[in-house]
């Protein structure tokens, strides 16, 4: 018997253990809704650890979620940056369009105030030399232009066409030394010739000493000479100097048109027809 | 033929930059005149009747893009070219410093020839004031442009020599 027990010792122990476990299980079945001392003990022991594990789990999950979010944010950031670039470009284009619209509106107003037909042109180049003042426009003989025609902008006189090719023309600016336009002081009707002085300046020459000219007076075209229509703004008087001798006074005029910011101009096709 | 086409391209690009791009960013006396640089280069390193013809044609092209007096720059460029050809034989023409000096002097000479011809033949009172005021800045800026444009290839050549 003892021999038999020794031989099947392992199986017997396993069977006993299983039986004990079964008995333990069956004894606890009737109190399955209530925690016994063992359960309570384990639960009490584990409760703080649960919290720590939960917090750790939360932390890890948070880090992972943050990492995933970061990846998305990076992607989103890239997209947003691209969008900002596109929107900025559109904003600039819109600003440019608004400015062009304003300029063209003013040019159109001027065009409608002229009786003569006029051709709008864009400035496409400037003079290659610092001591001459000419610009190149994108209209030429093919558009009906010819030498001598007056060129104006919304603010006033720009100059006169001097060299006309088929698709482009040169404009001699009011400020060039070779330029001269008959002018008249709007307030006092004093006459003179507005001549270019280079460097964005002009002078009203041949105005008699006794004529009434004051700083701030507006000089307009007199229409004499038949090139420019009468009444177009030429510039504003910035300095008047009357010497002790001589029959003329020295009058400096600042052109009404800002030559350096000129982008569009009107070429008047017929003279002496200003409204 | 390739060299000729290359030269035409260079002149065309220089003109385009000078009359369209630079005016948008640089105020008037400080715009470099690239054609003078080309004439100076022709005068020092070119030669023969075709060099003189090129200088004259360059001047005519410059006149088409500047002022109203056709032939003014043509005359001055030709004169500058001929003077440079005269002195080039006794100079070390590969020197960058000489090129810068020549461009500076050629710009001054060009301005003075313009001034003289305008005063004698044109009705442009007071042009001397504008011209003289802008002449020195123009000469300096051209010299600077020459030092940059001609300096870069020479640096490359030096690197190759090493």
Describe this entry's structure for a reader:
Chain A has a domain at 118-268: Beta Barrel (Thrombin, subunit H), CATH 2.40.10. Chain A is 37% helix and 28% strand. In chain A, strand 1 and strand 2 form a beta hairpin. Chain A is α+β, with helices and mostly antiparallel strands and 275 residues long. Chain A starts with a helix and ends in a 7-residue tail after the last strand. Chain B has 162 residues and is mainly α. Helices cover 81% and strands 0% of the residues of chain B. Chain B contains six helices and no strands. In chain B, helix 2 (34-45) runs antiparallel to helix 3 (48-64) and helix 4 packs antiparallel against helix 5. Chains A and B meet through strand 1 and strand 7 of A and helix 1 and helix 6 of B.
Describe the secondary structure blueprint for this structure.
The complex is a heterodimer of chains A (275) and B (162).
Chain A: H1 2-7, H2 9-28, H3 37-113, E1 118-126, E2 134-137, E3 150-152, E4 157-164, E5 169-173, E6 180-185, E7 191-198, E8 201-208, E9 218-221, E10 233-241, E11 248-255, E12 264-268
Antiparallel strand pairs in A: 1-2, 1-12, 2-5, 3-4, 3-12, 4-5, 6-7, 6-9, 7-8, 8-11, 9-10, 10-11
Chain B: H1 2-25, H2 34-45, H3 48-64, H4 72-88, H5 96-121, H6 127-161
Please give a handful of descriptors for the protein shown:
heterodimer, A: alpha+beta, Thrombin, subunit H, B: mainly alpha, 6 helices
CATH architecture type of one domain in chain A:
Beta Barrel
Q: Average the pLDDT over all residues of chain B and give the rounded result.
A: 84
Low-confidence stretches of chain A: none
SS-based class of chain A? alpha+beta
């Amino acid at each position: 018997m003892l021999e038999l027990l020794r031989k099947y010792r392992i199986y017997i122990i396993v069977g006993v253990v299983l039986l004990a476990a079964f008995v333990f299980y069956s004894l606890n079945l009737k109190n399955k809704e209530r925690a016994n001392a063992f359960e309570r003990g384990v639960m009490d022991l584990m409760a703080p650890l649960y919290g720590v594990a939960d917090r750790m789990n939360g932390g890890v999950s948070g880090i992972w979620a943050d990492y995933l979010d970061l990846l998305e944010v990076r992607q989103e950031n890239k997209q947003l940056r691209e969008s900002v670039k596109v929107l900025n470009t559109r904003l600039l284009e819109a600003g440019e369009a608004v400015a062009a619209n304003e300029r063209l509106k003013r040019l159109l107003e001027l065009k409608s105030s002229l009786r003569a037909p006029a051709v709008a042109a864009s400035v496409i180049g400037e003079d290659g030399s610092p001591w001459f003042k000419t610009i190149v426009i994108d209209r030429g003989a093919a558009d009906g232009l010819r030498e001598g025609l007056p060129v104006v902008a919304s603010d006033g006189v720009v100059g006169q066409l001097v060299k006309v090719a088929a698709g482009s023309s040169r404009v001699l600016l009011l400020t060039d030394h070779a330029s001269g336009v008959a002018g008249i002081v709007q307030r006092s009707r004093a006459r003179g010739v507005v001549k270019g002085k280079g460097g964005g300046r002009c002078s009203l020459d041949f105005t008699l000493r006794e004529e009434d000219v004051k700083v701030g007076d507006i000089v307009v075209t007199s229409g004499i000479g038949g090139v420019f229509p009468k009444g177009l703004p030429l510039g504003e008087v910035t300095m008047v100097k009357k010497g002790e001798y001589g029959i003329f006074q020295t009058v400096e005029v600042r052109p009404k048109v800002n030559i350096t910011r000129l982008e569009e101009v009107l070429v008047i096709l017929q003279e002496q027809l200003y409204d | 033929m390739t060299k000729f086409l290359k030269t035409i391209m260079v002149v065309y690009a220089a003109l385009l930059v000078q009359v369209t791009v630079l005016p948008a960013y640089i105020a008037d006396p400080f715009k470099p005149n690239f054609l003078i640089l080309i004439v100076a280069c022709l005068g020092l390193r070119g030669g023969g009747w075709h060099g003189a013809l090129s200088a004259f044609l360059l001047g005519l092209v410059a006149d088409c893009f500047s002022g109203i007096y056709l032939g003014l720059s043509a005359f001055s460029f030709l004169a500058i070219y001929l003077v440079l050809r005269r002195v080039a034989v006794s100079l070390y023409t590969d020197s960058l410093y000489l090129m810068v000096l020549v461009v500076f002097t050629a710009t001054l000479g060009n301005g003075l020839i313009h001034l003289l011809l305008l005063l004698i033949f044109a009705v442009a009172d007071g042009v001397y004031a504008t011209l003289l005021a802008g002449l020195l800045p123009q000469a300096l800026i051209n010299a600077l442009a020459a030092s940059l444009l001609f300096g870069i290839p020479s640096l490359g050549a030096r690197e190759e020599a090493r």
